[in-house]
Amino acid sequence: MTDLVGDLLRRVSRSFYLSLAILPRSLREPIGLAYLLARATDTVADTRLLPRAERLRHLATLSAAYAGAPGADPAAPARACAPLQAHAAERELLERVGEALARVERLPSADRAAVRAVLATITEGQRFDLERFPGEDADTLAALDSLAELDRYTYLVAGCVGEFWTRLHVAHRPRLAGWDVAALSATGVRFGKALQLTNVVRDVPADLRQGRCYLPAQELAVLGLAPRDLLDAAKTPKARRLLERLLRDALEHYDAAWRYTLAIPRAEWRMRLACAWPLLIGLGTLAAVARHPNPLATPTPIKISRSAVRAMLARSSLTVWSDAALRREADRLRAAVRV
Q1: Facing residues of 143 across strands?
Q2: CB half-sphere exposure, 288, CA atoms < 13 A
């Protein structure tokens, strides 16, 4: 059987696995388990062959099990959802939720409480997503209302991870004893929001086809657009101004995330790399979105090449101990996001 916080995690998320694998060993278990359990609920939420009400019920069951509620049976969602997964790794993940929870129970009490807290917030975000977007395709398209609602969503599904990450590292790494946990946790929230906003602007076309518009309806209305207009490639250029607003918001979050990364002591080079890598990849993705002539209507996902990712990882591995070198790399990528 494959290792949970190892081969299985790599198979369900190659990008996150990069950061996890470089972390100190004591942090891999709680962070890896939290990721796998969050991924399991996300998989349940995305099992479109099941009615939405049934998925919500399974999410509630898993959420209760994650919180340690007596009688909550995580095997029931697995029995319902695992056979419907197209990918073997997703099926295996659902089938092994009970094993992951057993390992959470064996964590030190503070780590266990942190894992439960972040999972409660993430599953709240996943339920919000299912309830806010009632359809499954473009015919049932719905949109978020406001920028404030978008900001709340990015906190629930990603920003909260910055708090979790910060508190765990401070608890496990003596070199971080001087950190202001409250202040750095708040900055960590912006780290997560930066990455989630990147996903939002990159995935607009795919999300529209699945009935979800994360571009707020109020902001679209200012531009004379309704969410359904974004399904017409001829009309999407009118939304460019809103896209650029979101790109600027994301860049401000990235600036905060780099401050967070450079606040990490140089001797904690593993944590530095685990933070720098998603930021570099995210900024590269934002730049690709910004230079695309019509990113809201592209039929295929906008991605940076694997060779570009490998180059980023290699350069940062050589410069991780230098604040100046990391700043230069961040500034270079930031400047490429032309808005």
Answers
A1: 213
A2: 19
Determine the pLDDT at residue 272: 96
Where is 213: in which H helix or E strand? strand 212-213
Nearest alpha carbon to residue 187 among 152, 162, 153, 156: 162
CA 110 from chain center: how many Å?
23
Q: According to the model, what pLDDT value does residue 6 have? A: 85
Contact 277, 19 (CB under 8 A): yes
Q: Is the pTM of this model over 0.70?
A: yes
Are 261 and 326 in contact by the 8 Å Cβ rule? The answer is yes
Pure H helices in the chain: 9-12, 14-22, 25-45, 52-66, 75-81, 88-95, 97-105, 109-132, 147-154, 160-172, 181-202, 204-209, 217-222, 240-263, 269-291, 306-319, 323-335
Residue with tokens 């209760």: 64
CATH architecture observed for domain 140-339: Orthogonal Bundle (1.10)
Comparing C-alpha atoms, which of 272, 331, 294, 270 is closest to residue 21? 270
Decide if 1-132 and 140-339 have a common fold.
yes
Q: What is the pLDDT of residues 120-150, one digit of tens each?
A: 999 999 999 999 998 889 999 999 999 999 9
As a CATH number, domain 1-132 is 1.10.600.10
Q: Smallest Cα–Cα separation from 72: which of 41, 49, 46, 42?
A: 41
pLDDT in tens, 228-276: 999 999 999 999 999 999 999 999 999 999 999 999 999 999 999 999 9
Task: Please tell me the predicted confidence (pLDDT) of residue 2.
Answer: 62
**Domain spans, the chain:** 1-132, 140-339
Q: How far is CA 63 from CA 27, 70, 77, in A?
A: 23, 12, 11
What interhelical angle do 25-45 and 109-132 show, nearest 10?
20
